[in-house]
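TEACHING EXERCISE
Course module: macromolecular assemblies
Task: Read the component lines below, then compare them to the predicted structure of the full complex.
Student: A.B.
Group: 4
Components provided:
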Amino acid sequence: MHCRCPATTQMREMHMIDRRTLIAGIAAGMAVTPALAHHGWRWTADGNFELTGVITAARLGMPHGILDVEANGETWTVEAGQPWRHERAGLDEALLKPGTEITVSGGRSADEADKRVKAERITIAGKLYDLYPDRS
Amino acid sequence: MNELLPALQQSELAQAMRQARWLYPAVNTAHIFGIALLFGSLVTLHLRTLGLLRGPDAASLERLVTPVAATGLLLAVASGAAIFTTDAVKYAGSSLFLTKMVLLAAGLANVVWLKRKRAARPAALVSLMVWTAAIICGRLIGYT
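Instructor-supplied answer key:
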């Protein structure tokens, strides 16, 4: 590897190409990831979506709550907030239990086949809880 | 397993992880720090072995980065275990998570090969690929 001959320059160039390929590979890998993301809002369709149904299962807590909501014979996945977000909205998490009728307003998945909504506002027993008061 | 996983999910640690506002993000951050230390050390060492970086010989570099990589591994495993408890049943049934565990095991087993110094370059290349794939799987778990 450490020969002192004219080939050294050529080898150095090869190293440069390898390095560029490596960096391009890493960059390409990173670019794919956001497209698959469902955290945040990138995955939701534009416009508001409303869903009313009955909670059939609830998994609460960090990183965020997940509710199964049955509506018109279909089971939807509702991405709710974190415990602190529910608390800030005045929503008692004890209400988020199977059997509770809930209206969720927010962004649904841009993929029609994906029955998934990210909740921005939740209504239970006629009371509105705004999970994102600074987002309207 | 059928009893262990739900019990893990109901443990004090898992409940604290789910309820406390800053614990989950803090542990997540620790996981990233761990991965950064481990992967950064390994990439530097392997690129040297493969001849893509010049400088100190691979043996000196190995002595230098091993404690950094080991610290990173410990941090990543400990924080990863804590994150696992929050949703143990779901993680244990996730093919991405299981793939990541296989890759993790392969990466650790490959350390034995790396230490033997036989066919150092293929071993370094395998290590790079396995850990890269493990990180990609890990990141994707958060999006399913």
